[in-house]
Amino acid sequence: MPDHFEDMWRAIAPVGRGSADGGYFRQPFASAERELDAWFVEQAAARGLRVETDPFGNRVAWWDVGSGPGVVTGSHLDSVLDGGAYDGPLGVVSALAAVEVMRERGFRPARPIGVSVFVEEEGSRFGLACLGSRLATGAIEWPLARALTDRDGVRLEEAMAAVGLEEENPQPWLGSEQVSCFVELHVEQGRDLVDRGEAVGVASRIWPHGRYRFDIAGEPNHAGTTRMEDRRDPMLTYAMTALAANKQARIAGQRATFGRLETTPNSTNSVPAGVTAWMDARCESDEALAALVDAITRQATDRAARDGTTLAVTAESVSGAVDFDPDLARRIARDHETGDWPVLPTQAGHDAGILSARGIPSAMLFVRNPTGVSHSPAERAELPDCLAGVDALAETLERLAS
Ligand code: GLV
Ligand code: MN
Ligand code: MN
């Protein structure tokens, strides 16, 4: 008898946890994420699902029934640094549980049903979010991806080889010929469902978002003997840029965050030589995103001129707006015993957004998060809501695979 939702959740809860009540470190091709990957393969085998693995390590576990392109559901098992338990794994565990629910009800799909896991969704190790689904769909090509390195200078292909993924170069394989539609269940990362008093919702769209690297160079010097007026201090340029990002985003009603910073030589008694900082920006429209990044860059450039520093801004990844197929969202959201499910936008990126942008009809289900906190050890969803999510996913898959 395969494990039910609660057994699966209990089994993976300790994997990659910093401390008993701390956050998760489940970076791609590192031990905790690999342990979850092995767990996924075991769970697929316990359900008699056939596992396909691509050269990047993305997996689809197929329930081989019916014919034609399959209906695929799933998410990711990696986490941000010091992340929560639910972002990613909730979608994978719910997908496995939903297969069981459908079978217990005696549902016979007309199409194959696949449970997928995409690697490096968060971009927490190699800096590019949704790398697995981008490679699988051809949204990025291998020659570009293979040059990515992690913070320790380990190249992507070295990290893959270290876990036995070195035989073939990843090629795109995922398109609408294999997959008729993709559904990703995800913990909600805001409080819309709490405000609406609903356990489950459906995604309408994903805001465009990007990651931008700000490299600021100054003049390294002595922290005591250098007169304040003689300094060329890149930390000042950075500090003002972070404030400008916050202010410009507030004025525009959008989002901008500096969450990562490196300074060289990182010495208490030196004026730094350089600061590199990463900005995450997210807006309602592609135009608003471009305008926000422009406004922040302009202010940072002016400040650099005043500080005697130099600034270079590099867009490391930009994902355009994704509008999920509205007919599909309506088909999923409407006519339930409990009424219609709400349809809402999200500011978070997801593999479903990549697949949608590559022409695969895609949809997302959200499960209520009581605090809305995410990318944090405090991320949560209550068990009854998780079980409601499993039922909602099973019902959705039955609609789509009938
Ligand atoms: C991924 O979760 C993102 O939105 O950055
Ligand atoms: Mn995330
Ligand atoms: Mn996620």
Distinct helical segment count: 12
Mean pLDDT value? 97
Query: How many β-strands, per DSSP?
Result: 15
Q: What is the CATH first-level class name of the largest domain?
A: Alpha Beta
- CATH homologous superfamily of the largest domain? Zn peptidases
Which class best fits the helix and strand makeup? alpha/beta
CATH architecture of the largest domain: 3-Layer(aba) Sandwich
- What is the count of distinct domains? 2
The quaternary state of the protein chains shown equals single chain
Uncertain spans: none
Heterogens: glyoxylic acid, manganese (II) ion
Please indicate the percent range of residues in DSSP E strands (runs of 2 or more): 15-25%
What share of the residues lie within helices? 25-40%
Give the ordered list of helices and strands: HHEEEHEHHHEHEEEHEEEHEEHEHEH
Terminal residue distance: 25 Å
Question: What's the alpha carbon Rg, rounded to whole Å?
Answer: 22 Å
Fold blueprint:
Layout: H1 5-12, H2 31-46, E1 50-53, E2 59-63, E3 70-75, H3 89-104, E4 113-117, H4 131-137, H5 142-145, H6 156-162, E5 179-187, H7 192-196, E6 200-206, E7 209-217, E8 221-222, H8 234-252, E9 255-264, E10 270-271, E11 274-282, H9 286-307, E12 310-319, E13 322-323, H10 326-333, E14 343-346, H11 351-357, E15 362-367, H12 383-401
Parallel strand pairs: 3-4, 3-5, 5-15, 6-14
Antiparallel strand pairs: 1-2, 2-4, 6-13, 6-15, 7-11, 7-12, 8-10, 9-11
The protein binds glyoxylic acid and manganese (II) ion (2 copies).
Can you describe what's shown?
The chain is built from twelve helices and 15 strands. It folds into two domains: 284 residues, 3-Layer(aba) Sandwich (Aminopeptidase); 111 residues, Alpha-Beta Plaits (2-Layer Sandwich). α3 links the parallel β3 and β4. It has 402 residues and is an alpha/beta fold. The structure holds glyoxylic acid and manganese (II) ion (2 copies). The site of one manganese (II) ion has 5 residues, from loops.
